[in-house]
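Q: My labmate handed me this sequence with no annotations at all. I'd like to see what the chain might look like in three dimensions before we decide whether it's worth expressing. Could you predict it?
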Amino acid sequence: MSKLCEGRVAVVTGAGRGIGREYALMLAEHGAKVVVNDLGADPDGRGGDAGPAGEVVEEIRAMGGEAVVNGADVSDFDAAKAMVHQAIDTFGTLDILINNAGILRDRMVFSMSEDDWDAVVQVHLKGTFAPVHHAAAWWREQTKAGQTFDARIINTASPSGIFGNVGQTNYGAAKAGIAAFTVISAMELVRYGITVNCIAPSAYTRLTAPLMGGGDITEDAKEAMSPRWIAPIVTWLCSPAAAKVTGRVWQVGYGSLAIAEGWRQGPVVPLESQDPTTLGPVVADLMSRAELNADMSGKPAGGPGRPEREI
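A: Here is what I predict for the chain of 311 residues:
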């Protein structure tokens, strides 16, 4: 088998279980040396256990690969820096950063506590910014010193963030922010030989199991939604073959791969008055011609034969 990431050095956050575990294992299968980060917290972010990350490291070593454990909280700015530099100090460089760590605290917005909001946004949004900041700062510094890079950053959004899902205002807002962060940081970092992409995965994991029927789901369905299906596109995006692919949000799951095309301007009308009382017919016209927001599949809600829009 051709190894796509031979000799490359990767940091994968949230790699003790689920999708992150599959990233770490597949990267190692393709020749990467991996820093396996995982705080080992419960799905809601509470607690901690270094065991899962250690088990992934042992699996990688058993297949003949190289890996080390990191137990940092990725939303801790200084700990994120230490994690990035652990890769550099241990393996001599850094080529790949995958931001995958995350938690869920689903509530309707009227029932969500301040702590539920803060914890989810902290882990997802700051937990993406902090590692990217420190990795990008190091790559930039080394580039100024004359070194060249073919580096990769992979962030993690969600259909809940780019399309929306009831009960996940905290999670969806953070994931939408990560998608925007990806697009902008790709613009900023391309001059340094760094690509930035984002995955919006759908997979059956311990975090998503309660949303996907829990124990009622069949084994065939679990296999079809295995996180192992998410890892191939990430491994490819981390390889030299993906040098010209940047600033994209990749929707993957349920047996398909797509590019989520993001916000774009819809129908337009000229504004001819500053009187708000004239806007009723204007808004009605725009609403009648605009596509409905996508549902969780990424398709316009309602599909063919959808009901008339109302205002």
